[in-house]
Each structure stands twice: as C-alpha cells, then as structure tokens.
Amino acid sequence: MTKSAFIAIVGCPNVGKSSLLNAFVGKKVAIVSDKPHTTRTRIMGVVTRGETQLVFLDTPGVLKPHSRLGDFMAKSIEEAMSGVDAALLVVEPTPKIRVPEEDLLGKLKAADLPTVLAINKIDAVEEKTDLLACLAAWKDRHGFDDLYPVSAHTGDGLDGLLDKLAAYAFESPHFFPSDATSDQPESVLAGELVREQMLRLLRQEVPHGVAVMVEPINERENQNGQTVLDVEATILCERENHKGIIIGKKGAMLKQISTNARLQMESLFGAKVNLKCWVKVKEDWRDRQSILNQLGYRI
Ligand SMILES: Nc1nc2c(ncn2[C@@H]2O[C@H](COP(=O)(O)OP(=O)(O)OP(=O)(O)O)[C@@H](O)[C@H]2O)c(=O)[nH]1
Ligand SMILES: [Mg+2]
C-alpha cells in the first residue's frame, strides 16, 4: 500500500531551508548561498523510502515584497502552504523569534497545519546551554507537533526528523516516479546552478538583479561515445555596469562562473556538459511581467 505526504518548508531567508531539502533528497535540487533571498520559486524535492513518498516544497524566505518578483516570491510561499499535509518551520539556533516568524506562525495557525520545528545549524552552536535556551523559547509557541535540533551540514538529527515527517503520509498513489528527485526540468536546474555561482562570486546587488534563461538542453554523443549535454544560458542583468562586472576583466569572471557551474551540472546530471553563457542587459526585468512569465516566475 503506497503512501505520500506533501510538506512545505518555510522560514526566514538564509536559515537553511534549501540546504535541508538537499540533505533530505541526497542531491542538490535547490541552490544554496550565504546571501538571503537565494530561492525565488517553489521547488519540489522528492524522497521515496519504500512505500512512502515525501514531496517537499522549498519556498523563498519570507520577506516584504519590493517588486513584482517579490510579489511572486511571497505568493509562492502562500501557495505552498495551502494544500500540503504538514509544514516544517526552519529557524536559526537562537532564542530570538523574529517578526516574519511571528507572522508565519499566525498563518500556520490560521491554516490549521500540523507543524514541526527544525532548529537548524546546531553544528555552529558552541554552548549547549544556548541550544537549550533556544528550545525553551520555541517550545511553548504555536503547539508544534515536535521540535528537532538538526544540522543540514552534518546530517545530525535528520533521520529522526524524516521519520517524524513520514508519519504524515497517508494512503495514496505516489505523485512522482520512485527515482525522481525534483519537479524542476534539467534546464531550470542548470539555470539555477549558474545563478548560484553568481550569488557566490559577485557582490550582493549584482546577483540579486540577475536571472538566467536556459534553452532546451540538447543531448548528444561525442566521438568517444560519451553523453554530452549542450547547455546555452543567457544571463539577464539590470545595468550595463553589472554586465561589465559579470563578464569581468578579459572575461575572467564569466569564465569562472561558467566553469564552476559546468562542474556542478556534470555532477548533478552525471554527464559531460558543454556550457555556453551570454550576458544581456534588460532593465527592470524584475518588474516586467512578460519577462517574469518567460522565466517561469508566475503562479
Ligand atoms: N553551519 C551551518 N550552516 C548552514 C546549515 N544549513 C545551511 N547553512 C548555511 O546557511 C546559508 C543559507 O543556506 P540556504 O540553504 O541557502 O538557506 P535558505 O533558507 O534556503 O535561504 P533563502 O533561499 O535565501 O530563503 C548557507 O551559507 C548555508 O551553507 C547548517 O546546518 N550548518
Ligand atoms: Mg533557499
């Protein structure tokens, strides 16, 4: 008898939602960076263990929208929270409860959604008493089904958390094949890996103003019989000077971005990748609905 559950992963920016999703799935299906607002769309990650399939919905960190892209990000959190079987609220290992978290708690309560709390990054906590203070601060809030101190980096606590989440599964067909890991097509994952390198290598305002469009990926065999994926990515940025920064001196930055992204793609797709990247300026793309639609930032 097969079982499934849909689980929304919610929380403030940068708390490690996407890192946890990747740790659950065992593969990088969502990009990660040390800058807030890395995730822009709802991304599904799939974990199938025997009869039970868990479908996780990773969401952008809660924020106040400042553009149409921001509106879309906020809506994708709301959408993820409706129609799931449970929510996983991820927080930093500190006793401080932040305003957006208070808002989220209100929404989870209104939706009457069973919620588990994950206190992430416990590997970074030096004093045990700090963690105890954090547990105490959250314990009596909201009526969580359970609280789990975990680390997406070391894997600490994740088995117990997954077992707990699996208990929300109910009798139903599986929604994805048992070997599926994500609902994102390869071209979207490839674009995200390019964006991830920009988040890592460039200063804050530049990567937040970029989007990456990838043509349908062509698969072929080279003369040695190896599978090669041809990936053509166009990086959209908001200003001429940003274009200059992305390309770098004699193209050095763009080369670094594409080499790193290509290596990530090769490990994710298990094939050789031939990646070509172009940079184009499209002012105000974050507020232009037609471009947002093309990029898939629409509900
Ligand atoms: N020490 C430590 N750092 C972590 C852990 N999990 C995530 N991080 C770091 O926290 C930062 C944010 O991680 P993400 O997974 O991108 O966070 P997010 O919540 O998805 O962020 P947004 O998509 O921007 O909302 C990255 O620098 C991660 O490496 C953890 O278990 N321990
Ligand atoms: Mg994220």
Description of the molecule:
The protein has 299 residues and is α/β, with parallel strands linked by helices. It has 2 domains: 3-171, 3-Layer(aba) Sandwich (Rossmann fold); 186-294, GMP Synthetase, Chain A, domain 3, CATH 3.30.300.20. It contains 10 helices and 11 strands. The chain has helices spanning 17-25, 68-81, 99-110, 128-139, 158-166, 186-201, 205-208, 240-247, 252-269, 289-294, and strands at 3-11, 43-49, 52-58, 86-91, 115-119, 146-149, 170-171, 211-214, 218-221, 227-237, 272-281. Strands 1, 2, 3, 4, 5, 6 and 7 form a 7-stranded mixed sheet that branches. Strands 8, 9, 10 and 11 form a 4-stranded mixed sheet that branches. α6 (186-201) packs across α9. The longest helix is centred in the C-terminal third of the chain and has 18 residues, at 252-269. The protein is globular, with a radius of gyration of 20 Å. The protein starts with a strand and ends in a 5-residue tail after the last helix. The model has no long low-confidence stretch (mean pLDDT 92). The protein binds guanosine-5'-triphosphate and magnesium ion.
